[in-house]
Amino acid sequence: MKIMLKTDKIKFSYAREKVLRGIDLEIEAGSFIGIIGPNASGKSTLLKNMSQTLKPESGAVYLDHQLLNDYSSLELAKKMAVVPQDTEVNFNFNVYDIIMMGRHPYQKRWSGLSQEDKKIVKEVMEVTDTLKLRGKLINELSGGERQRVIIARALAQKPDILLLDEPTSSLDINYQGEIYDLLNYLNQEFNLTIITVSHDLNLTAQYCEELLLLKEGRIYAAGPAEEVLTENNIKAVYNAEVLIKTNPISKKPFVTLVPEVNRIKKSKQKDFKIHIIAGGGTAKNWLYKLENLGYQLSIGVLNIGDADWQAAKELGIKMVEAPPFIDISETEIQKNRELIEKADLIILSDLPFGHGNLANLEVLFDYPEKRKILFSNFDIKKRDYIKGKAEKIWNKLLEEDQNIYLLKEKDNLISKIKKLEN
Description:
Rossmann fold, alpha/beta, 2 domains, nucleotide-binding, elongated, 35% helix, 422 residues, 6-stranded parallel beta sheet
């Protein structure tokens, strides 16, 4: 692939404050790159050094294999366009005139607008859906409309590469999606190379081909979102505890900040150990609550890919897992026993039973001395898919075990646990 933009060990400082500390990168033509990182990591400064707004104190920037400093301002404007973070316009021009300003690099002194200028401006207005705003004044527009106009002005330059600094920072969520949809369209349909700086990890993850994660003026990680947005990377760069989930639609990583109560739970972790037997998503909602309260949790046996398995995996809960669609093996049963033996309390959710997971119910007979909470929101008959076998085991368990506490829909799980804990 052709290298469109390259930086070679660029460094930059504001007075005595070092901001960029030797940035090396190569950006291929047609890429869609997101630059992310915390405040003061050098994101916007890097973008400005790549666009000739600032000049590196050492190192070099190359555009299309030519030193950036060798381009005249007009030559550079024909190859590179920049959408700044501040899109305010000092004079209240109408939309058409604002976009036509993008044709300035192609216009000769004292000459009027050419047919080519008008043709290109019409084309970019169609692409950016700004034709309907043609006669409006720029200060009459909403934030999302204004951003589309500024992008249209940049596109009127007919650049090979588009640089954007926080293009959605002041926009509502609906406009944020619209802007990134537009950028994605420009990248896919016109092979436009796009580099965007953003604080929004999830937006960039969903749309950008690759991410560049900065920390203190250096590249900490670079590559596809799946490789860059990891819990360890976010912890190291942002000093934040997060959960990384998968967006069910885009299949891209989705970052969720762990609540403060969860972040401090390690220092307040309880000695009380709870083993959970669940499946089918019957426990996922209260797993998070128990984890946040500091209980030491374990769970099993869960099928890989199950909703409860996913929740437990995200929370880092000790777990016994098994392949789906086959019976639980003796090895998995034994691993489950080892976790149960360490527990102060066993919780059985109102999961359905079949041949594959019946061992999760049968194992409770071996621990009559341990306290157990059994969910009974739904009749066991409706959860028995093996012709009454699970119902028979359930009823026998209730008859013989004196340490069972049934939990119905109106009961509070947390309150019941606290009573048993004390």
